[in-house]
Amino acid sequence: MSTNMGTSVWNGAGRRIHMQEVGTRDGLQVEPCFVPTGDKIALVNALSRAGLAKIEVTAFVLPQAIPALRDAEQVLREIERAPGVVYSALVPNVRGAERAIDARADELNLVMSASESHNLANLRMTRAQSFQALSAVSAIARQAGTAVNVSLSCSFGCPMEGDVPQDTVWDWCARYVEALGARGVTLCDTTGMAYPGQVAALVRGFKRRWPDTELTLHFHNTRGMGLANVLAAIDAGADRFDASLGGLGGCPYAPGATGNVCSEEIVHALQLMGYDTGVDLEQLLEAAHRLPALVGHAVPSQLVAAGRRLDLHPLPADFDAIRERALARG
Question: Is this structure's pTM higher than 0.90?
């Protein structure tokens, strides 16, 4: 396999991959415990220092809908902003957009589903109603000079409908890119149904249609294909990926959908293959190691459990004696 840049996908040769953190929103929103506001701010600050290209800090939704993120304004206002990092917030409606803009979000992330069933289950609206509501949000963002990204859930399949036709995905992308002027689109594998061949086809199709639009891929690792899907997307020309610290996350309206692909695992793998992620893996792992105490349980991250590839272990205490006995046996 080779990328459209003529480089083997297994040898990144310094190619830049933009890692975008969603754990502080997508990850924390499904946690039953409330992570204290000060700890959330410290976590975002740590992620900023680690060099993530974008951080989806929080969501401006009704507190009763997502109690875990009821402190959205305070968190977004009080974080330390690092130069070059984009601080994004999910907003579902005009009121959420106004709150996010007032709290100085760099970008508004708007969400709807490519699947009618999932959109109704998740947002309590038809897709047409979502588009109408988000069109009003886009207008407010334009007036404020705030960038807009659209996340299209279930782009790779719906847990209630099955496959989502590519033409359906392109139709909704076109509405947001061409009609509303969205700066970026995120194709979301909300329930972990994506597979590498499908990913490559969607990425290539998007790049052909909208080469100047920022394309992000948002994968879940529900069926163990997260990293394979990332590599398939890179091979097809993608260079922006959402990921979640510790592998936290999962859609509450998608049965069986486990966490997002894990930030530190993806960074670790890509760096071993020679890609430039711009991320300080040591600092990212330090942040990941804080998570179990914050959320009250172990996290899916295999790097938190096992360490990096060359994090070596000490020799057994009786190693010299073991060697002497081995040598004595001739």
Answer: yes
HSE toward the beta carbon, residue 156, CA cutoff 13 A? 27
- Sorted by sequence, the CB contacts under 8 Å of residue 39 that are 6+ apart come out as 294
Is residue 50 within a helix (H) or strand (E), and if so which, with residue range? helix 37-50
Is 251 one of the catalytic residues?
yes
Which of these is catalytic: 158, 188, 251, 262? 251
pLDDT per residue as tens, the chain (330 positions): 444 444 589 999 999 999 999 999 999 998 999 999 999 999 999 999 999 999 999 999 999 989 999 999 999 999 999 999 999 999 999 999 999 999 999 999 999 999 999 999 989 999 999 999 999 999 999 999 999 999 999 999 999 999 999 999 999 999 999 999 999 999 999 989 999 999 999 999 999 999 999 999 999 999 999 999 999 999 999 999 999 999 999 766 666 667 899 999 999 999 999 999 999 999 999 999 999 999 999 999 999 999 999 999 999 999 999 999 999 997
Of 323, 273, 306, the residue nearest 14 (C-alpha)? 273
Which residues make beta-bridge pairs with 185?
150, 215
Residue 28 DSSP code? G
3-state class (DSSP) for residue 26? helix
Q: Write the single-letter amino acid at 179.
A: A
CA distances from residue 303 to 264, 266, 268, 269, 327 in whole angstroms, order as listed = 7, 10, 9, 11, 36
Which residues in 118-195 belong to E strands, given as ranges?
147-153, 184-188
Give me the residue label for tokens 């060099």.
51
